[in-house]
Amino acid sequence: MLFRQIISKSLRQQSVRSIRFNQFQQIRLNSTVSKIQDASSNLIEKVSNLVNNSIYWSKVVGELSKQVYLKEKLSPPSIAEIREVYYNIYDQFLRLTYRPNEVISFIKNFGKNEFITYGSYAVQIFGLFSLGEIIGRRQIVGYPNFTVHEEH
Questions:
Q1: What is the reported pTM?
Q2: Cα–Cα distance, 56 to 64 (Å, whole number)
Q3: 144 in helix, strand or coil?
């Protein structure tokens, strides 16, 4: 009989401790959840403000670009101008292939200033190429995968 009383008393104490521990866990969980909710609402608010500002400023830049385009009387190049540019590039390339000694002397006399100039051109061209790739893929890394994946 005494053994049963000791066991039942021990079980009651353990259940009270368990209830207290569960209440502590519940309070801790509630505070963690409220912190996450606050952080996510702050993040959503900041992102929506950023989106609104981006839309506003893109409209301002667009309108300003229209005004500059009209005031400067800009127009896209004609077909003849495009052909002329590419013909000149092709002609210069052919001249260099006929005179390889000029290419070699140019490379030998390549100085620091030319290296900086042409290096910056190369970086700009690579950056624009990369930007075009990102826009084309609609994401920064990799290509989107539109295939349907079946689960087995």
A1: 0.35
A2: 12
A3: coil
